[in-house]
Design goal:
Strand content: 15-25%
Structural class: alpha+beta
Number of helices: 5
Radius of gyration: 20 Å
Low-confidence stretches: 173-181
Oligomer: single chain
Amino acid sequence: EQKFQTASLAHDIKTPLTMIKAYAEMIQDISGDNEKMRNEHLDVILDETHHLERLVNDMLTLSKYESDVFTVSESEFNLYDHILSTVNLFQIVDVDFDIDVPKDLVVIADEIKMGQVLYNFINNATRFVGDDKQVHLHAAQLDKDQVIVSVKDNGPGIQPHLKEQIWDRYYKIDMNFQRTSSTGLGLSIVRAICEATGSSYGVDSVAGEGTSFYYTLKIKQ
């Protein structure tokens, strides 16, 4: 497994570096005096640089959580407001968000870290959203102490034998094997945060019908 992860990491870093080098050489040799072509080549370099930056940031985040070199800072916060502010980060995405969350529910958690969990689940849902372009966010009391938060899409779903693998580092459900905005570390970061903070998490999915990711939070008593 370690060899696989190292090989995957090397590949993920090498790919954008190869593109950056190739397009920089094209600017040097071909498009330097052609403004339109030069700008197109510069756009590719910027896109690849941004992807590499996201990859490095996610690697650092995952390393921090897995090595326990962070503190959990719990506070009370309104769950609806927390979810709405996270959803608002996706305003430019062509997706309709249905938020079914009690507006007066106060939870206790590390708001920043659990916000990262929610962000990764929503980001994943928008990437695999169904033709209806709908993502559903739901929160309900699980028992007197906990609330369960779920993020559901009506997309292609996940095959049963893949449900455990999706939490692994660098595993990507990429059906057409093309570059996406994902670094392949989002769900690994979710797992590390939830296990470090004591939050339960998981996924329910039916191939062809959609996927629901979920996690739990403590309710203020």
